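Morning run. Coffee first, then this:
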Amino acid sequence: MAAGAKGFIGRWREYFATGHGGNVGLKSGDPSDYRVSILETVGNNSTVADLLALEVRWKSKLLSREMGLNRN
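And here it is:
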């Protein structure tokens, strides 16, 4: 999820700078092993609650907690 003042670009800059963006699951691997995709975009009027609900929905659909690198 990319929320806050820096939004999407700020989130991806953090991933680029650190190789993991604070994601515990990504810290254990080589950043060059991963491919990323944008799953959904939302408008500026979306609330943090809206974004959290979308994030939970995608993690559930993709089983990223059970089979992926999401630990939250």
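The CA atoms of residues 45 and 72 lie 25 Å apart. Good start to the day.
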